[in-house]
């Protein structure tokens, strides 16, 4: 059994009380304290992919075949930063600090005017104007990029024709959540991308390192699959690596779940609920039955899996048999391949409700988000930077949320790291809560964002600076991708 609390794994098995092998444990875990102290610099060599049937050391209750393949936690001599990279890191950190006030202004302008998926027009214009104002530094900005009205791309090149020139890409997510604003901290993600991109560009100029830096403004992460459309349009095809960070209650660089959104519509027939209810076909009953069918399914769901949703309807009245209803659900699993099998079970819950009530049913499966798999050397380099420069320990813990960046991970070497921001009560103020919206506007969260931005900036700079490192991450990613059943 998996201990669940804020999507982090427990080090102690709640079945037998024994110590668990965290490199082979499930993709959920118990919350860890926010990292503030520097840990001992112990390191182990990177391991090969975990075998499909390996169980954790204390017992074998959890089915390990349901878990994604993982590498061991951060650690290797490969995370040691060279002297030249350290020099670039100092330039990067200095540049980020110089941008502090500007970044804060961008963040709060976005925070104070939240826009939901595909409606991020003011946010789009805010960042396009910002990069148009930096054209003298070599930045070229493309509004309405790749056929998406609210996407944008900013690009910087330094000696791009050099034989050793490579390309890295950062992400600025743009959309907010309906009703509660930037409760996932996308205003912080947006400025982390700006900080990383501008600081790496400054380092390339100062240290005369060849390379291209791309910052992609990505709309509709909260359910719209913006990055999926950008992938299809070729936005990532030139990248050697893609990197981003995300605020959360705790820090980590582990896996994230795959998710399949679905909209279900039941159509029945209205009737007077008092005079002739037997003349109606109750679409609300169909929705309630489907809801309860899924609740019954949970008993047989592996603990790493998730199904959750809401019932919706229009113009309902207590004295009318509802003739139409909707269900909006998310179905989650540790891997995209596991998600495919699980979706089939959930679909039967929907279909059974239609059969029982006599309603017709329409099921719209929206684009699936793949699980996040961070390339281990990118993760370990990021963790090393945060530890060496800020004394922060970044564990290789998993996070039981989902993102369209998962599909990017299946396309090229990538890193999606969570970083902790202060929450008065992490139990009730995590992502997608009003409390997190407030925290995302705090000065403390801004400071943590700048540190995380330095982490991905230095990691990205390493890809551009060191040919061997770039080759290692590509080989590492390819080995995983060849054995992964993904999009």
From TrEMBL:
GO terms for molecular function: dipeptidase activity. SUPFAM superfamilies: Bacterial exopeptidase dimerisation domain (SSF55031), Zn-dependent exopeptidases (SSF53187). Gene3D superfamilies: 3.30.70.360, Zn peptidases (3.40.630.10). It holds the Pfam family Peptidase_M20. Coiled coil: none annotated. InterPro entries: Amidohydrolase (IPR017439), Bact_exopeptidase_dim_dom (IPR036264), Peptidase_M20 (IPR002933), Peptidase_M20/M20A_hydrolases (IPR052030), Peptidase_M20_dimer (IPR011650). Residues 23-47 have a biased composition (Low complexity). Belongs to the peptidase M20A family. This is Peptidase M20 dimerisation domain-containing protein. It comes from Pseudozyma flocculosa PF-1.
């Amino acid at each position: 059994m998996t201990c669940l609390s804020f999507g982090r794994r427990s080090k102690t098995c709640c079945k037998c009380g024994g110590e668990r092998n965290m490199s082979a444990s499930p993709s959920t875990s118990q919350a860890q304290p926010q990292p503030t102290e520097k840990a001992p610099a112990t390191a182990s060599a990177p391991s090969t992919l975990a075998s499909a049937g390996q169980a954790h050391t204390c017992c074998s209750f959890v089915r390990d075949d349901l878990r994604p393949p993982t590498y061991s936690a951060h650690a290797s001599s490969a995370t040691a930063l060279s002297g030249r990279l350290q020099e670039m890191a100092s330039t990067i950190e200095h540049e980020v600090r110089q941008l502090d006030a500007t970044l804060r202004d961008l963040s709060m302008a976005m925070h104070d005017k939240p826009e939901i998926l595909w409606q991020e027009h003011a946010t789009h214009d805010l960042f396009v104007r910002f990069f148009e104002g930096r054209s003298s530094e070599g930045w070229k900005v493309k509004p309405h990029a790749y056929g998406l009205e609210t996407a944008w791309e900013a690009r910087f090149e330094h000696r791009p024709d050099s034989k050793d020139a490579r390309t890295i890409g950062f992400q600025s997510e743009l959309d907010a959540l309906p009703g509660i604003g930037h409760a996932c901290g996308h205003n912080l993600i947006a400025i982390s991308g700006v900080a990383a991109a501008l600081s790496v560009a400054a380092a390339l100029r100062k240290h005369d390192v060849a390379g291209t830096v791309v910052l992609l403004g990505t709309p509709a992460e909260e359910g719209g699959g913006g990055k999926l459309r950008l992938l299809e349009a070729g936005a990532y095809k030139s990248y050697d690596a893609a990197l981003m960070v995300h605020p959360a209650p705790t820090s980590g660089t582990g896996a994230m779940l795959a998710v399949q959104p679905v909209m279900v519509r039941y159509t029945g027939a209205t009737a007077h609920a008092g005079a002739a209810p037997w003349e109606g076909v109750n679409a609300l009953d169909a929705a309630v039955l489907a809801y309860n069918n899924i609740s019954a399914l949970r008993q047989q769901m592996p603990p790493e899996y998730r199904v959750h949703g809401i019932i919706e309807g229009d113009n309902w009245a207590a004295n009318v048999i509802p003739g139409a209803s909707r269900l909006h659900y998310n179905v989650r699993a540790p891997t995209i391949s596991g998600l495919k099998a699980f979706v089939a079970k959930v679909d039967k819950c929907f279909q059974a409700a239609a059969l029982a009530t006599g309603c017709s049913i329409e099921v719209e499966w929206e684009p699936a988000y793949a699980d996040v798999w961070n390339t281990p050397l990118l993760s370990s380099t990021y963790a090393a930077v945060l530890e060496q420069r800020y004394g922060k320990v970044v564990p290789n813990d998993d996070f039981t949320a989902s993102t369209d960046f998962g599909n990017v991970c299946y396309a090229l070497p990538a890193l999606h790291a969570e970083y902790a921001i202060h929450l008065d009560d992490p139990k009730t103020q995590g992502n997608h809560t009003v409390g997190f919206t407030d925290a995302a506007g705090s000065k403390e969260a801004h400071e943590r964002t700048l540190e995380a931005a330095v982490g991905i900036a230095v990691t990205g700079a390493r890809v551009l600076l060191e040919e061997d490192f770039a080759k290692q991450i590509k080989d590492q990613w390819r080995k995983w991708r060849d054995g992964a059943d993904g999009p």
